[in-house]
């Protein structure tokens, strides 16, 4: 009978053991959650640079088809008539035509001789950087919520505008 009692006691966990496990899980969670948030922001920023590259390519295709750059995302989007035209070339998705994707707002402006693309985060939770690109194809970045411009440092060169960035 005594052996049976010892076996029963060792079959479960004590309250103290459970509290220690819960405390360890809370510490791991407190460390992991900020890292996950940072990884999500980094992923959204990289997606924004890919979308800018795609928009840049769409503008080049638009220019070759219609002899000018698109003045808005709508002109790059799905044609209303089903056939590509200057008012809808079918070069970008319907989601991109709306101007908001993955936590970033995209603005395209074009003229006969050039275009600009801006990508700005909707909030600090979706991005820490703004991006800019024009007909040169060079993507520029600005840390913070101030929109990037043609004078902002190239992507990867840092906020100081050093020469370590990628040259295109």
Explain the overall architecture.
With 168 residues, this protein is α+β, with helices and mostly antiparallel strands. It has one domain. Helices cover 41% and strands 16% of the residues. It contains 4 helices and 5 strands, in the order ααααβββββ. It has a 5-stranded antiparallel β-sheet. Strand 2 and strand 3 form a beta hairpin. The chain starts with a helix and ends in a 25-residue tail after the last strand. The C terminus is likely disordered.
Please supply descriptive tags for the structure shown above.
single chain; 168 residues; alpha+beta; 5-stranded antiparallel beta sheet; 5 strands; 41% helix; 16% strand; elongated
Give the SSE map:
Elements: H1 2-10, H2 15-66, H3 73-76, H4 94-97, E1 100-101, E2 104-110, E3 115-121, E4 129-134, E5 139-143
Antiparallel strand pairs: 1-2, 2-3, 3-4, 4-5
């Amino acid at each position: 009978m005594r052996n049976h009692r010892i076996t029963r006691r060792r079959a479960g966990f004590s309250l103290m053991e459970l509290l220690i496990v819960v405390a360890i899980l809370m510490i791991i969670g407190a460390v992991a959650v900020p890292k996950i948030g940072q990884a999500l922001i980094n992923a959204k920023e990289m997606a924004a640079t890919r979308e800018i590259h795609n928009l840049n390519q769409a503008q080049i295709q638009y220019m070759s088809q219609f002899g000018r750059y698109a003045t808005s995302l709508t002109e790059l989007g799905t044609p209303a008539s089903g056939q590509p035209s200057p008012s809808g070339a079918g070069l970008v998705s319907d989601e991109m035509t709306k101007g908001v994707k993955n936590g970033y707002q995209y603005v395209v402006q074009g003229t006969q001789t050039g275009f600009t693309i801006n990508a700005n985060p909707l909030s600090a939770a979706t991005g820490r950087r703004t991006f800019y690109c024009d007909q040169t194809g060079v993507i520029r970045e600005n840390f913070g919520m101030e929109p990037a411009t043609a004078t902002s440092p190239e992507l990867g060169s840092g906020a100081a505008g050093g020469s370590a960035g990628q040259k295109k």
